[in-house]
Write a structure and sequence with these properties.
The protein is an alpha/beta fold. About 35% of the residues lie in helices and about 20% in strands. Strands 1, 2, 3, 4, 5, 6, 7, 8, 9 and 10 form a ten-stranded mixed beta sheet that branches.
């Protein structure tokens, strides 16, 4: 018994270490959200205080500093011990007292997350909602929309934020004063290489939920009956008729809308860009399943080097969000 327990503990340690390494690597290369996004989220909470934000699937906690600029406290939920460890390690000392980290899934905001009903001003998820059970199966398993609605005070907001696949641009002036056509050619070559990597080389290795990112979360909205008033930008996920404020016991949100006019932009070297591409989950799966196959990132890297050489690359990820205000 003791030997088996020790072996199990050793396996657990290795698993945690691997996850933590992945967490640290993930944090180093992933895009960081712009300050305008956090201002937009805070502005969406139109009335009342901004005391508590709940970050679902916080991962390595990269959105926590941005949330703390606008909210007094943050409760961050994350099921992976390794990612949570990385989030804890990355927190600045002066923020530690304002953040509560809990190892629990997004569906358990109140039970495991310890967020009392009606206490949150914002419930938000960044690039994570496509992994959630958004709609419940039963009263015992209500799903994220119903759990978020329960945690939110009236006028509070739930926001599901994501970012799409990256588009590459030449940094301004990097091809010289007369280099516009060279820059355009470089962009064309580089974007074609990233599209090939994404769709052709790694397409079969993405989890099927990646399709929600490609669709910019269209189809992950609340159900028709859960929202009193639908903005033109948003469509009920169940295809139901948009209600026009009719009185329904199922209404959780006064309105639902989409935001799609922001993006993340980051200037980086080709080497750093290749590092980012190597954090893609489909690449991790490819390497695990075909360790001896030619490395598709090496091929993409050759095209990127040919396109940009040692010039900087501006990487842009389109941002999108489903937003709903608590009734």
């Amino acid at each position: 018994g003791g030997a088996m327990a020790a072996a199990a503990a050793a396996i657990e340690r290795v698993a945690a270490h691997k996850l933590f390494q992945h967490g640290a690597e993930y944090a180093a290369h992933r895009p960081t959200y712009p300050t305008e996004l956090f201002a937009r989220l805070a502005d969406a909470v139109r009335s009342g205080p901004r005391s508590l934000a709940v970050d679902l699937g916080t991962g390595t906690g990269q959105a926590l500093p941005g949330l703390l600029e606008h909210f007094e406290r943050v409760v961050a939920l994350e099921p992976s011990a390794g990612q949570l460890e990385a989030a804890r390690a990355a927190l600045p000392a002066d923020a530690k007292s304002r953040v509560t980290l809990r190892q629990v899934g997004a569906e358990a905001i109140e039970t495991g997350g310890g967020v009392p009903a009606g206490s949150a001003d914002l419930v938000v998820a960044f690039q994570a909602a496509h992994w959630f059970q958004l709609h419940g199966e039963s009263a015992e398993r209500p799903g994220v929309y119903a759990s978020a609605a329960r945690a939110l005070r009236p006028g509070g907001v739930v926001a599901l934020v994501g970012y799409g696949n990256c588009v590459l641009h030449a940094a301004e002036g990097s091809f010289g004063a007369d280099g516009a056509s060279s820059a355009a050619r470089a962009e064309e070559v580089a974007n074609a290489a990233v599209r090939k990597l994404y769709k052709d080389d790694l397409g079969a290795h993405w989890d099927e939920r990646r399709g929600h990112i490609d669709a910019h979360y269209v189809g992950l909205e609340p159900r028709a009956a859960q929202v009193a008033e639908w903005d033109d930008s948003a469509t009920p996920s169940d295809g139901g008729a948009r209600s026009t404020g009719g009185d329904s016991s199922e209404v959780l949100f006064t309105r639902c809308w989409r935001e799609e006019d922001l993006s993340i932009r980051r200037e980086m070297s080709v080497a750093a860009l290749a590092g980012y591409l190597s954090t893609w989950s489909a690449y991790k799966t490819f390497k695990r399943e075909q360790p001896d196959a030619p490395d598709p990132i090496a091929a993409a890297r050759r095209s990127l080097d040919a396109a940009f050489g040692d010039r900087p690359v501006v990487v842009e990820w389109p941002l999108f969000a489903i937003m709903a205000e608590r009734a």
